[in-house]
Amino acid sequence: MIRYLPSFCLFLLLTPLTAQRAVAIDPEESSVYRVKTLYEGLGGLALMLGSTAGIESLRRKPDIDDGTLRRLQETGTSRLDRWGLEQDALRRFRGEDASDRVFNASMLLPATLFVSRKFRKDFLDITVLYLEAHALSAATYAFSPLGPRFIDRYRPVVYYDELSFEDRRAGNNRNGFFSGHVSTTAVGTFFFTKVLSDYNPQWTGGQRALAFTLAAIPPAFVGVQRVRALKHFPTDSVVGLGVGAFFGIMVPHVHKVWARNHRSRLSLGGGYSNGAGGGGLTLTF
Prior knowledge:
Blueprint: H1 37-58, H2 66-72, H3 92-108, H4 117-120, H5 123-143, H6 165-168, H7 180-198, H8 205-215, H9 217-228, H10 234-264, E1 267-272, E2 279-284
Antiparallel strand pairs: 1-2
């Protein structure tokens, strides 16, 4: 599902809070997300490494025997998935190459946020959240009951009798549900859009709706190409898009709510006495 593991530099950033007089909190200068950078970063990295190992183990499923291949040619598919058996098998590599290009670009898309200083100041927070989103999506594929560890679904390639048994019998062809390429692409595009939206609270509802609609286009394109590559049926791609979009949106959203709740518990108080002279600042969490 993931061709390479993105490199994330994880550091613990400690910023002491000091004040001599009454201080006001500027929402524009405070972080949009509340992130335990070190702990979440290390946890996300560990989960990503474990998920990557889990995905590799799925590729080593037992080969499909010739009898099963012959029997599959006689079984039908649902109306929604029939399109997966109507492709040109000899052009499958074109679909695979096209999907890989968009897949790789989507992985790097959130990095373009850091062109702006608005996002660079929260580089570590955003990077850790992005790592977490990918790690959770990968873990869902590798270990959850929704993924191929518990569901043996044959890829469309095994149904094409014009291809050789060698092309069709590989154990990895049991891993059709759900599409990891699509889910990973969706994590990248929806995470990018969610963060962009969170840092632009002035956006209208229509602008947000347009942004998230555009975010669905790259994973939808990858989903179509994965069908043309004989890697997945249409429903595999749809579920993959849903899984990736969920984690791409919910990981930053949960941390945004956490930051808002944390700030709502913060109270500032100060006082000044003309007689004795002096001032004070009280922070309550």
